Amino acid sequence: MYSYIKGTIEEIYLDHIVIDNNNIGYKINASSNTIKDLEIGSMAKIYTKLIVREDDMSLCGFSTKEEMHMFELLTSVSKIGPKVGLGILSFATPGQLGAYILSEDIAKMSKAPGVGKKTAERIILELKDKVDKNNIEFEPTLLTQAPVAISKDEAVDALLALGYSSAEAKEAVDKCKKDGLNTEDIIKKSLTYLMSKALR
Question: Which family does it belong to (predicted)?
Fold first, then answer.
């Protein structure tokens, strides 16, 4: 119904704004990432999504199309409504969320408000094949560094549990870890490395 609303920011709250357009004040629910860049009295263009329920109609607003696309993806996941969707977008930018989803970073996703481990797993499962279709720019440091660091720690712990020394476990993981490998793959390659080393 509304693609965007352009007007003067009249009021700013923690979770919504009021924007004046032709003497009509529109209440628009928004994430903190959208709200933080707005100032009372300034002109703004807010992309909008009309939410229609049996007992309510409301507008959700976004400073960028990327954020709106991510909101649409998040709310397409079962049991994630507009409020939780905006909460997640207040927790991280679309680029960060995309990185968490693509790298299957359940730990970081589950820290978003209203999102536990099971919901984080569901978000990743349902959106992993969709997030890269919306021209979202993912942060390369999140895609290359963070997931590898997490996988490395988990892999070392797994090798320690199997009876290898700390030095052996760290050496094997350092030799075998590569970008894009998950924890299970790193453990398997590390075990192969350790066994081949023992046979030398």
Answer: Belongs to the RuvA family.
